[in-house]
Amino acid sequence: MQLLGPFLILVAWEVPGIRAETTCVTQRCLANNLVSSYVITMPQSQSCNLPVNLSMIDYQTTYVDTKLMQFSSLLTVTMIWRDPNLAWNKSEYDFDVIVLPASQIWTPQLTVKNAVTATSEPAYPDVMVSSDGDVEYAVLMAITVSCNINLFTYPFVTDSCPVAINGWNDTRGCGLSLEYGTVQWIGGNNGDWETKSVTLQGTDNHDNRNYLNVTVSIRPFSPFVTLVMPSILIMLADLASAALPFEGGERNTYKVTLVLSFIMFLNALTQGLPDDGPCSPVIRYHYCLCLVVLVVSLLVSLVLSRLDADGSILPCKSLRCSEGTRNEKKKPG
Ligand SMILES: *[C@@H]1O[C@H](CO)[C@@H](O)[C@H](O)[C@H]1NC(C)=O
Ligand SMILES: *[C@@H]1O[C@H](CO)[C@@H](O)[C@H](O)[C@H]1NC(C)=O
Ligand SMILES: *[C@@H]1O[C@H](CO)[C@@H](O)[C@H](O)[C@H]1NC(C)=O
Ligand SMILES: *[C@@H]1O[C@H](CO)[C@@H](O)[C@H](O)[C@H]1NC(C)=O
């Protein structure tokens, strides 16, 4: 055993974790020392609560699904927290910042309370640590939020949806307490939808801002051209059919074509809009009314053409006709 003593000391000298106490002259050496001290647990204090400053949130709406009433967005969240175990004495090591791999140290996990799906990954593989232990880290979050947009006035709609960014929190107050910095947003082209504004809002009065209020609006041009304009034009075309003659059922054929093409637009409407909700778009009722008017106009036209041909509404009521059929029916009996 006595012989092994010097040998054990030699082994200890070679293991990096134990050699961490040696003074470094380069930033990389200091970074290696900090990584090898395994700071993989959350910084803990008596209050059991770690303040995390979300100093910058970059928001971008990527996709809005009008049918499912869901919208997806991409957030880059830059956060800063203080980890005392990653601090160093500046009079010993004269460096302001060092860079550490994010996977080797503890980093906060953010969630979105009202998300249908949420994924989060490091925006960059490294974090920046300053001498007092302040760690700066950025995550990229892809989230899908379900939101009841009021579509009553479709296609002229502007409404806002909450995106509630949260950290892990316990009922006893353990966890992350989030502070919010500034929010930036990129307008972007998301099909028919446009992001109007993104602001920080709080659920209570004492300036506890804890969700993003995202205001989106529809660019009305495309839905107007594909849904509203055709319905108005078809109604006009139906009015214009008064100019066609009854003879040969020309007017009726024309009206049937109009009804059929209108039903095609009805299909486009149900594909683009959500199924029934509390605030059903008023354009649905407009379409219902248009269809009823078209069909009534077709029926009236049919009756009128009948009158025009026989001078009677009911089939076989005129004398010539009824006598003719009666004779034919009696023959076999
Ligand atoms: C959060 O970080 C930003 C940017 O560094 C800073 O301006 C702000 O004062 C910080 N907020 C808190 C509550 O520490
Ligand atoms: C930093 O190192 C200097 C010199 O070794 C020492 O005098 C000072 O007390 C240290 N400061 C802290 C906060 O440990
Ligand atoms: C977590 O709980 C503490 C104590 O109740 C509170 O101060 C803090 O704001 C909460 N943090 C979040 C993100 O809800
Ligand atoms: C969200 O922002 C919009 C526009 O700034 C505002 O009209 C709306 O009231 C806000 N929503 C909430 C819940 O604060």
Name a few traits of the molecule.
single chain, 333 residues, alpha+beta, Acetylcholine Binding Protein, Chain: A, Methane Monooxygenase Hydroxylase, Chain G, domain 1, disordered C terminus, binds 2-acetamido-2-deoxy-beta-D-glucopyranose
What report would you give on this structure?
It comes from Denticeps clupeoides. By secondary structure, the protein is of the alpha+beta class. It folds into two domains: 190 residues, Acetylcholine Binding Protein, Chain: A; 104 residues, Methane Monooxygenase Hydroxylase, Chain G, domain 1 (Up-down Bundle), CATH 1.20.58. Helices cover 32% and strands 32% of the residues. Helix 4 packs antiparallel against helix 5. The protein is rod-shaped, with a radius of gyration of 36 Å.
**What is the residue-mean pLDDT, rounded to a whole number?**
82
The share of residues in helices is: 25-40%
Low-pLDDT runs? 1-20, 324-333
- The H-level CATH homologous superfamily of the largest domain, spelled out, is Neurotransmitter-gated ion-channel ligand-binding domain
Structural class: alpha+beta
Can you count the helices? 7
Cα shape: rod-shaped
Sheet bearing the most strands, described?
7 strands, mixed
The sequence of SSEs as H and E is HHHEEEEEEEEEEEEHHHH
Beta-strand residue fraction: 25-35%
What's the β-strand tally?
A: 12
